[in-house]
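Inputs:
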Amino acid sequence: MKIKRNLTLATLVALIIPAAAILCGCPAKTDTDGAASTSTTTTPTAAKRPMPVAAGNTDSGSGDIIIGLVASLNGDLKPWGGDCEIGAKMAIAEFNAAGGLNGRNVVLKIEDSQSAPEKGKTACEKLISEGALVVIGEVASGITAQMAQSAFEKGVPVVAVGATRTDLTDIGGHLFRVCYTDAFQGPVMAKFAYEERGKRKIAIMTDKQQPYSTGLSDSFRAYFIKLGGEIVDEQFYESKQTQFSSQLTNIKGKNPDGLFLSGYFNEVGPIARQAKEAGLDMELYGGDGWDSRDILTSGGEAILKGFFCNHYNNYEERPEVKDFIKNWQAGNGGNLPGTTMGALGYDSVKLTLDALKRATALNSKDIITALENTENFAGVSGSITLKGAGGNPQKRALVVGLDMIKNQVFKKAYEPSEVK
Amino acid sequence: MSSLLPYVAGLDFSALPQQLTNGILLGAIYALIALGYTMVYGVLRLINFAHGEIYMLGAYVALFVSWLFGFTPNATTTPTISLHLVLAIMLLTSMVVCAGVGVLIERFAYRPMRNQPRIASLITAIGISLSLQYGGQLFLPVSPPPSISEKVNPFREPVGFSLSGENPALVTEAQNAKGAFEKTKAEYEAQKIIEPDEFNLSPKGVELRNAFQVQERNYNTLKGKATNSAIRINIPTGQLIMLLTVSSLMALLWFVVSKTSAGRAMRAVSHDFDSASLMGVNVNKVVTLTFIIGSALAGAGSMMAATFMGTPLTTFYGVQPGVKAFVAAVLGGIGNIPGAVLGGLLMGVSEVLVIWAGKSEYKDAIAFVILIAVLLFRPGGIMGSTKVEKV
C-alpha cells in the first residue's frame, strides 16, 4: 500500500501545481486588459469618473504638512522604486529649502509596497491613517489600482507615478497620473517603425501573463495596421520563460523586417539574444517595460538594434532636465538616474506640491479640485495638463535607442497631437 | 475533418526539422533536472521540492564565477583569458557547490525526518524550497536581476546543417536586388554625413531615406524568401555544446548506476530500502551519493542554461524549470532513470510542436494533457513500475 499511496500523492501534486500555475497565468486578467485596449480611453470624460464621497484628510493647521509616498523599495520593481524615492525626496527638499508652504515644511512619509499590490494597499491605508493629504505612487499599474481603490473609500487623492495601464484612471476622480498611457506608447512605436525606420512587416512577441504586454501589443498592432503595415505573426510566451527558439523559428518563417517585443526587460533581453542566434538579426521595438540598465547585459549585442518608448531621457537638452540632472548628480555621487522613474517620482511630488499651493484650503476635496485644475505644469518629463483630461495627461513620449556607455540615447520625441 | 485540412495545409512543414531540434534541446535540460527528482524519489520515495532551488543556486554560482573573472555588467574591457577555461571553471564550480548544497539539505533537513511519516519529509522539502526562494533574496543579488554577460560565451554563431539547398531562382532574384539596395544605401549614407540627425532630415534627406528603405525592404524580403526556401537546421553553438554535455553526463550516470558497485548499492536501496540496509549496504552513503549526483546535474544544467540563454537571475529562477522537470519525471515514471530522460524529451518536443502549430498560448497545457492521459492508462508513468506492491 505504501508505494501506491505515495504515487497517488505524487500524481496529485503533479496535477495541482501546474494547474495552479496555469490558472495563475491569468486568463481573466488578459480579458480585462483586452477590454482596456479596445476602449480607447485616452481622454475619458471627467463625468465618467466617480467622485469619492468620504471627506478625506484635513490639515491640522500647524506644524508640518503631511503627504505620503508608496514606493517599491524591495522586490522585483526595486530599481524603479529606488529611483522614484530619490526623485521624490529631492522634490520635497527643494520645496522646503525654498520656504515651504507659507513658511511651513512639507513632510513626505514613505511606505514600502515590496512590489506587491496587496502590500501597496496596506501601505496606502497606513499613510492615510497618519494624516497624509495626498498619497503618491506607484510605479506599476497593478499596485496603483489597489491603492486607488482604498484611497477612494477614504476620499484621499492619489497621484500615480509610472502606472501606464489605460483604464486605470476610471477608478475614480481622485486618481491622477504624471505619465502617458499604453494607448499612446503603442501607436508611437508603430509610427516610429513605419515612418522613420521604413518597416512594413512586423512580428510581435507578447507576454501573455502580463496585462501590460497584451494591452501594448494590441495598441501597437491596431495602429501599425492603420498606417498600412502588416503584422505577419504574433507569438506568445510567459514571464520567467528562458528559451524562445521555437517561437522565433515560427517568426523567421514569416520573414518579417522588424520585431515588436511588448514585455518587460527580464524576458526581452534573452529574446533579443536568441533572435540573433536564430538568424533574426533585425531591429527590435518595445515599450517602457524595457527601461532598465540590465537589458544591456541580458540582451547582449542584439539589443543595441532596439528602440523603445520612454517618458524622459537623461540627455535631453531642455532646461528642466539639465537642472534635474545637476541636482540628482550632486546628491548621488555623480551618478545619473538609472531609470525614468527618478524623473517621474520627482514630477509627481512637484505636481502635488504645486496643487497644495493652489488649493483654496488644505483638505482632500480642495486638493482634488486643485489637481484637476493643473495646467501646463512644467515637469522634467514634459508639460502636464490635467484639466479636463480625466486624470490622464496628454504628454509627449520619447523614442530612445540603447548604447553600452550612455545606456539610453534620445532619438525622437512625439507630441500627443502627432499620433491620432 | 474538412475544416482541419486547410489548417494542416497552412502549417510550415519545412520548419519541422528545426522545430524538432529545438524540442530536443529544450527537452535535454528538462531531462537533466528530472534526473535529480527521479533519483531521489527512487532511493528515498521523497519528492525533493528543493531541487529547483538547487538549480537556481547553480546559476548564481556560475554568475559569481564569471564576475570573478571580470565579466561584470559595468566592465568596459573584455578580460583576455581563455573563455573555454572560464566556462569549464564555471561548470565545475556550479556542479561542486550544488552537490555540496544538496548534501547539506539531505543531511540536516531530510535525514532527521527519514523515520517520520512521509508527509513530514514532503512538507520539509516544500519548506526548504520556500526558504531558499525567499531567504535567498537576503544574500543573493536580485534587484536589478543580474544576468551572465554574453561576452563570456564564445559560442554565439549558430551551426547549420542543410537538408536541402536554397531555391536558385530566388537566390538570383535576391542577388539582382542587392545592387539597387547598396546604391541607395550609399547615397543615403553620404547624405547622413551632411545631416547627422537622421530623425530630423531635410526634404532631400527624407527622399533619399525613403528610396533606401524601399530597396532595403525589397532586398531583405527576397533574401529572406531565398533563405526560407532551404530546409536547414540551425543550432546555436552554445546549445549544441549544452546538448553534448548533457548527453555525456547522462552516459556517465548510466555507467555509474549500472557498472559500478556504488551504482549497484544505489539500485539495491532503490529496490528495497530496509532489506538493502540489512544486507550491509551503507544506506546513508548511498543517499548522500544520490544527492551529490542529482544536484551536480542540476548545477551543470543551470550553469549552461543561464550562460547560453542569458536569462536574468532571481531566486525564483528554478521554479518554472523545476515544475516542468518534475512533471517530466512523473510522466516518464518517477524513480526510473531512462524514464526521466524520455519524459523530458517528450515534454520538450510536445511543447515545441504546439508552438509550431501556431498555438503558443497552449504550450504549457499540452504537457499536462499528455501527463493526464498517460497517468490514466499507466498510473506509474511511461516506464514506471505498474506492479501492485503487497503490504
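The radius of gyration of chain A is 22 Å. Flag for discussion at group meeting.
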